[in-house]
Amino acid sequence: MEALLEPTLWALGMALIGTVVFALIGLVSGTDETATIAPLTLLVILLGVPPAGVFAFFMASIAAKHITHAIPTTLLGIPGDTMAAPLLRDAQMLRELGVPHIALRKAISGGAVAAVIAVPMAVLFAWVLTPFSDAISAVAPWLFLAAALLIAVLSKGRWAALVALIPFVLIVVGLQNFATGILGKGLSISFFLGIAIGPLILDLFLASSPAGRATLKRDAPRAFELAADVRTWKGRMPNPVGVLDRGQLGGTAGAAVISSATFVFSPVAMTVLMGEMFGGRIKNGYRRLTTMMAVKNGTTESTYIAETLIPLIAIGLPLSPMAAGPANPLFNAPPVFTIDAETGETNNLHNLLDPWQFLVFGLAAVLIALIITYPFAMTQAHRAAAWIMKKVSHEAIIGAFAGLIAVICLYEGGVIALLVAITIGLVGGLLNKLFHMHTGVQFMGYYVAALTVPAIAGLFA
């Protein structure tokens, strides 16, 4: 009993911390998941938090952020983060109809329903794949190559992103050899963080260049119109199931199940696809838009949960866009969690937690996040959005994360690690901006450099 009590307390405590932190961060528009969730999760790991606490912190963070990211998306007309972008058009059309509060409530209710469904479904699908984990691990270098090619082709960049993988992988290999020659050891965290903040590093370089600064210049501060605060229920708090009609509830549940099984595809692509599949054919315009909001935001929750849990439970290798991106520290955070570059053997949450712990702690973390963020978003969204826009500096938030990333890089390898992070970030930022080679493709490229390239070299040795 005592052996179970300690990890349970850690899980509940860290879930609470993750919920509060990322419920607030979700209110700040443009706070990309990879650049925020990943560094803080990495910090939690390096501080020595036990595995149950790390896992619960991450699960609560993604559940909370994908509830509150709907607030700026629907009330202000600006995406809360990367995954909120597919919701923007539908949210704007509902704003023009004068019902942004309905858009918000449909979105967060869909997210709440999908999150609760996704955890057990993801554990179930992982259990189905687990008997094949040894075979999958044995061919891991080639799986990473195949996954990188697939994710690149399915990305917005298509063939350009696919071809750009070659120079990107070679740059990673060269920088890794450079760092190893000087430090006597390889780097991993610095590469990961550099990729995560690539767009930010690119913007900083552009701002320091006269020609680049011209592309970032604005004639006046951006103006936003905050929608009115309207309540559409009696009593203190509505039930998420009651906010959605029967068709929307069925569509959200169906999208959660399907997107939980298709864990190798891009979360953004799955969000758009599920919205069109379950809402696109509805003829009534108002009902179609509200259904799309529920299904799409539900899919942002289910894809992030499933794409983390299935590779983590069944394989232990980050073989999904989500696992290769924001969830990467759960798989590879040296010296705490590691993946052997030569054998593909793992020492991470896959080895340290049992499947039932993933289910129990994961579901508990998601429920804690929903119990706190759902009432907050339903009742305080208008007030919170106004306060964030008036009082919180977006630049200060970004600067705080940049400082955190610099500290972690210096911890791993001093100035050399920091220079590697800046270099790979600048290259990754350029590829993202010019060729739409998003960070998920770049993370897979890193694993190709670390695992597949040595395997290919071994064939010719």
From TrEMBL:
It comes from Microbacterium bandirmense. InterPro entries: DUF112_TM. Residues 12-434 form the DUF112 domain. This is Tripartite tricarboxylate transporter permease. The keyword Signal does not apply. The keyword Membrane applies. The chain crosses the membrane at residues 12-30, 42-64, 108-129, 135-154, 161-183, 189-208, 356-377, 398-431, 443-460. Keywords: Membrane, Transmembrane, Transmembrane helix.
